[in-house]
Amino acid sequence: MSTTEHKPDVGCLKVSSKSSPASVAGAIAGMVKDGVSVEIQAVGAGAVNQAVKAIAISRGFLSPIGIEIACVPSFADIVIDGEYRTAIRFTVDPRYTRGVGASVSDERRDSLSDL
Pick from 106, 86, 84, 87: which is nearest to 97 by CA? Predict the structure, then answer.
């Protein structure tokens, strides 16, 4: 008998140096609101710059409705036109606040802040 784990949907956004940070931020915010974990992939300094701006802007969109986000950067080896490149990948996940979604109890939050 085999079992399958339910993995949350993951949306991958590829950002270039010419991407509009506001447009990418809107996409991030929309996906996070829908409960989708977002991965943002950027190759090159200009693309990483636009991606970071988009993450900051999306936080501004989500924070007023009680959703904070956490961003975890990592490296990814990818192939573009037959050449190996290193991309920066940002994983953006929601951290719900103000009674939205699952919250951490005050006691648990205090114990975590001591770490």
Answer: 106
Tell me how many degrees the CA angle 72-41-103 measures, rounded to the nearest 5: 35
Q: What are phi and psi of 90, to 5 degrees?
A: -110, 125
| Residues 65-110 pLDDT 10s | 999 999 999 999 999 999 999 999 999 999 865 554 544 444 434 4
Q: What pLDDT does 22 receive? A: 98
Residue 38 near residue 3, CB atoms below 8 Å: no
pTM: 0.75
* Strand ranges in 1-115 using DSSP code E only, listed in sequence order: 10-15, 37-42, 67-80, 83-96
Tokens of 1: 């008998």
Cβ atoms of residues 61 and 25 within 8 Å:
yes
